[in-house]
Amino acid sequence: MEFSEYFPIWDKLTPRQQELIAAGLAARTVRRGAVLHSGGADCTGLLLVKTGQLRAFILSREGREVTLYRLFDRDICLFSAACIMRSIQFDVTITAEKDTELWVIPSDVYRQIMEQSASAANYTNEIMASRFSEVMWLMEQVMWNSMDRRVAAFLLEEAAIEGTDRLRITHEAIANHLGTHREVVTRMLRYLQRENMVKLARGAVEITDRTGLEALSGG
Questions:
Q1: What is the DSSP letter of 169?
Q2: pTM for this structure?
């Protein structure tokens, strides 16, 4: 499938605007673990995922990570082009969680399109509102939910993404997603194992009581 089939407002752009995007568009294939964007000083451009999975996270001064959101097929990342949105005041890192095919729209090209097209400007605002809603939801989780609830919710989300209850994931990786220490996650997982909700193995967590996790997570 072509880029035009993945970009929702393609048909709302003028032929000249379509030409501008097509001329600057770059297709990329990245391996799992690759860093696509690193901080506000890096103006990579807009990322549109064809297939795969990306992760957007922020990094504290102490080096602790917390996941803001994930990007899947057909999702677009605006924070990788933060230089065209001066109101963004925090640094976001984008990495590939799986081997990923994507397109990169240069920041200067997209800025020009936004200035010319009301459809592009409205689409950008909708995506930005959606992303900030996800960030606000994350803040609520951090401020008001206990860590056992957050771990339970994360495991259920991960199982939904992977399509399996046996998750190949380390305690360190879970801690990075949730913005906490590995030891905290290990303690929570051992508690869940004692409650027969999960079964732990080296580099893996298996959900054994989905109903119990859902009740604990509040979902």
A1: -
A2: 0.85
- The answer to whether the CB of 164 falls within 8 A of the CB of 205 is no
Enclosing H/E stretch for 191: helix 182-194
Alpha carbons 39 and 57: distance in angstroms, whole number: 10
What letter would DSSP give residue 83?
G
Q: Taking phi first (over 0 means left), then psi (-120 to 50 degrees means alpha), and beta for anything else, what does residue 144 get?
A: alpha
Alpha helix locations (H) across 28-146?
107-116, 118-144
Task: Tell me the HSE value of 157 on the side-chain side, using a 13 A CA sphere.
Answer: 15
Instruction: Answer yes or no: are the C-beta atoms of 44 and 99 closer than 8 Å.
Output: no
Confidence bin at 158 (pLDDT 50/70/90): very high
pLDDT by residue (tens digit) across 20-77?
999 999 999 999 999 998 876 677 889 999 999 999 998 877 778 999 999 999 999 9
Q: Determine the Cα–Cα distance for residues 44 and 106; give it in Å rounded to an integer.
A: 7
Q: Which residue blocks in 63-117 are alpha helix, DSSP H?
A: 107-116
The continuous run of DSSP H or E covering 31 comes out as: none
**Residue 151 burial by CB count (10 A; 0-12/13-18/19+): exposed, middle or buried?**
buried
